[in-house]
């Protein structure tokens, strides 16, 4: 099947979509950073993309797939906020345990790697075009 | 005894070099793609070894299989990934320039053959 054969374009393309998933998870975490819930179980838990290499033995190329998206096993932060309509009988709410600076770093790293892949792709494309137009 | 490099078809060593450059480009792109994958080990082709094997008559697959090496990281990372983006970017652009030069040599050769055919 053609879909299983990797070439430089599919290597970069799939890696770009993996980076995009990673960026989406960071965005979701940041968006929910200040969300609170009335019960500990209901609080938002940060999500993280798990990357796995996909090797193509025939060509020796390797791209990356998102094998799963896991929810972090972090404990929500208990905050005393009796005025909050979600507060429980003790006047506490549960805030999402999102490390905002870590998520920002994740996002920066991801966008930098995306840029690298775009650069790789455009160089490869230019060289292939030059090869086709050789006269 | 003829020089083995002269027995490599119309375009000499350049055709082989272009194939190898293309393969190396894919390998370095794989490294760049896996910059964030835990436990991924970066690989590269030793171009000299591969080209020498190819000139001596090895097939493309044999030549690259014998010349593929794992990169030795300057500073290993905790997640077992050995991609160092700076090195990969340098290797990628160096290889791209090599590809473009080989292509220029090939282009010249093609032009020469064309002129010979036309009897110019």
From TrEMBL, chain A:
Residues annotated as domain Flagellar basal body rod protein N-terminal: 11-38
InterPro entries recorded: Flag_bb_rod_N, Flg_bb/hook_C_dom, FlgC
Keywords assigned: Bacterial flagellum, Cell projection, Cilium, Flagellum
Subcellular location field: Bacterial flagellum basal body
Signal sequence segment: none
Domain Flagellar basal-body/hook protein C-terminal: 98-134
Family note: Belongs to the flagella basal body rod proteins family.
Assembly and oligomerization: The basal body constitutes a major portion of the flagellar organelle and consists of four rings (L,P,S, and M) mounted on a central rod. The rod consists of about 26 subunits of FlgG in the distal portion, and FlgB, FlgC and FlgF are thought to build up the proximal portion of the rod with about 6 subunits each.
Protein name, as recorded: Flagellar basal-body rod protein FlgC
Provenance organism: Novosphingobium humi
Gene: flgC
From TrEMBL, chain B:
Record InterPro entries: Flag_bb_rod_N (IPR001444), Flagellar_basal_body_rod_CS (IPR019776), FlgB (IPR006300)
Source species, domain of life: Bacteria
Keywords noted in UniProt: Bacterial flagellum, Cell projection, Cilium, Flagellum
Pfam families: Flg_bb_rod
Cellular localisation: Bacterial flagellum basal body
Annotated Flagellar basal body rod protein N-terminal domain residues: 13-41
Main function: Structural component of flagellum, the bacterial motility apparatus. Part of the rod structure of flagellar basal body.
Subunit structure: The basal body constitutes a major portion of the flagellar organelle and consists of a number of rings mounted on a central rod. In Gram-negative bacteria, at least four rings, L, P, S and M are present, whereas Gram-positive bacteria lack the L and P rings. The rod consists of about 26 subunits of FlgG in the distal portion, and FlgB, FlgC and FlgF build up the proximal portion of the rod with about 6 subunits each.
Family note: Belongs to the flagella basal body rod proteins family.
Protein name stated in the entry: Flagellar basal body rod protein FlgB
Origin species: Novosphingobium humi
């Amino acid at each position: 099947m053609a879909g299983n054969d990797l070439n430089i374009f599919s290597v970069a393309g799939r890696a770009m979509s993996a980076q995009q998933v990673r960026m989406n998870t960071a965005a979701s975490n940041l968006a929910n950073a200040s969300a609170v819930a009335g019960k500990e179980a209901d609080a938002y838990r940060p999500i993280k993309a798990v990357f796995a290499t996909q090797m193509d033995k025939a060509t020796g190329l390797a791209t990356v797939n998102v094998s799963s998206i896991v929810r972090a096993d972090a404990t929500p932060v208990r905050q005393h906020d009796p005025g909050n309509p979600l507060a429980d009988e003790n006047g506490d709410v549960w805030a999402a345990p999102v490390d905002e600076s870590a998520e920002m770093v994740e996002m920066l790293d991801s966008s930098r790697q995306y840029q690298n892949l775009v650069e790789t792709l455009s160089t490869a494309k230019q060289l292939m075009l030059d090869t086709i137009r050789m006269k | 005894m003829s020089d083995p490099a002269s027995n490599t078809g119309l375009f000499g060593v350049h055709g082989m070099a272009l194939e190898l450059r293309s393969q190396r480009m894919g390998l370095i792109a794989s490294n760049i793609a896996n910059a964030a994958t835990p436990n991924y080990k970066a690989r590269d082709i030793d171009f000299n070894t591969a080209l020498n094997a190819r000139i001596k008559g090895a097939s493309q697959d044999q030549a690259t299989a014998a010349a593929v090496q794992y990169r030795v990281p300057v500073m290993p990372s905790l997640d077992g990934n050995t991609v160092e983006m700076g090195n990969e970017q340098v290797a990628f652009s160096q290889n791209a320039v090599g590809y473009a030069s080989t292509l220029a040599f090939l282009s010249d050769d093609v032009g020469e053959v064309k002129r010979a055919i036309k009897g110019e």
